[in-house]
Amino acid sequence: MAYKPRTVPEDLKVLRILNNRMALTAEQHKYYLYKEKGFEGEVRFDLLTEQLQSDCLILNDLYLEVNNTSFQLDASIIFQHTFYFFEIKNLEGDYCYREERFETIFGKIIKNPLDQISRSNSLLLQLF
């Protein structure tokens, strides 16, 4: 079981309320569904980590700050001598990794999740 349970992000709570009370624009609705799907992926990941049989500490949605720079880790698992962090994505479709970027099979470039991992790794090293 996670030491820090996952909670619904504030922006998703607001989007849920707005979606129930008004007609979102197409772009707003797309963003709302993206946030819902992302949270669903995080909850599914939590179900997997709950099955761990090892002696470890699991922290979800860990917000940290280093040198006036804040960052968030979706999930972290701490063993006696090892710290793992995870950036969780819940995307549909087929993606290709070409020339250090991710794109759909139709050629649309998407935000590279490896950039976020690299940034978090650099900030964690400064913190440690």
Give the N-to-C terminal Cα separation: 25 Å
**Rounded mean pLDDT score:** 91
Oligomer: single chain
- Main β-sheet: number of strands, strand sense, barrel status? 3 strands, antiparallel
Give Rg in angstroms.
17 Å
The string of secondary-structure elements, in order, is: HHEEEEEEH
Strand order of the largest sheet: 1-2-3
Helix content: 25-40%
Count the DSSP helices.
3
Count of folded domains:
1
Tell me about this structure.
This protein starts with 9 loop residues before the first helix and ends with a helix. The model has no long low-confidence stretch (mean pLDDT 91). By secondary structure, the protein is of the alpha+beta class. It has one domain. The protein contains three helices and six strands. It has a three-stranded antiparallel beta sheet with strand order 1-2-3. A three-stranded antiparallel beta sheet has the order 4-5-6, with no helix packed on it. 5% of the residues are buried.
How is the topology of this model organized?
Elements: H1 10-21, H2 26-49, E1 57-66, E2 69-78, E3 83-86, E4 95-98, E5 101-104, E6 109-110, H3 113-127
Antiparallel strand pairs: 1-2, 2-3, 4-5, 5-6
Helix pairs in contact: 1-2
Summarize the structure.
The chain has 128 residues and is of the alpha+beta class.
Task: Tag the structure with descriptive keywords.
about 130 residues, alpha+beta, three-stranded antiparallel sheet, 3 helices, 6 strands
